[in-house]
Amino acid sequence: MTDAPSLEDELERARELSVSELADAIESIGFECTRCGACCKGHEREDGEGTEPHTATVFPDEVRTLQSAAAEATEASDPPGDGDLSGAYDWRDVARPMPYGLSEGADGPEGETFEWALQTDACGDCAFYEEVGERADGTPKGGCRVHEDRPLICETYPFSVALGGTTQPMGEAVDEAGMVRAHECEGLGRDISRQDAEELAAALKERAVRELEEAIGVRDNYEPVDPSDHDGVVVYDSEGPKRPDGTAIRDAE
């Protein structure tokens, strides 16, 4: 019996991934976004009891990028004279504590968890999702208000790489080719150009590296904190323990 590869070993493998080979795999599976919006919306729970909110991991620096991007998008769409909106989006508008590991207390979620998820609206959809017309079949066409600045997990959906320490969005893989795994999506199996496959492959490699760097950072900066002293919830990310509003706990102590 051999020991599982360390995160550092997996990170080295991620850095050595061939973009060309990843593109080959993506081409063999095939993909074209159909703008269905399924990967941005909440979905029905398996037990049929309500909706499971959209859950997509977002890195701390991606949260800050989205804060700026969302503010700029809002400012651009508002009539002149509405004032400076650069500070209109705070951390909680963009991200929420990853729900796994938390429980519902008398005053809301409580406990400790690792990493952040994109914020959702009252329907469980991503806070940045919007419907922008209809598709040819009459169903809503999905859009993203921060598409150019979307997180890597959104940019690379529905694919992931088969490396320990990386995430699998939307459950188990439904197809795979080499190191590439494909997850449920109606756009799978469609033709994709070589250029698009290579761009997607490059983003997929970047995401794998970033996920492993983040995992190592979480491990190295982990320092147990009592959630009851900090709004009932503590989130551990690569920058250390934080409150639900994204502020660092260590800086204030």
Provide a brief overview of the structure.
The protein has 6 helices and 14 strands. The protein has 253 residues and is α+β, with helices and mostly antiparallel strands.
Describe the structure.
This protein is of the alpha+beta class and 253 residues long. The protein has one domain (7-221, 231-247). Helices cover 29% and strands 21% of the residues. The protein has six helices and 14 strands. The chain has helices at 7-15, 19-29, 60-77, 91-94, 152-155, 194-220, and strands at 43-44, 51-52, 57-58, 95-97, 102-105, 108-114, 116-118, 129-134, 140-144, 159-161, 173-177, 180-183, 233-237, 240-242. Strands 5-6-13-14 form a four-stranded mixed β-sheet. A three-stranded antiparallel β-sheet has the order 3-7-4. A three-stranded antiparallel β-sheet has the order 10-12-11. α1 (7-15) runs antiparallel to α6 and α2 crosses α6 (194-220). The radius of gyration is 19 Å and the shape is globular. The protein starts with 6 loop residues before the first helix and ends in an 11-residue tail after the last strand. Residues 79-86 have low confidence and may be disordered.
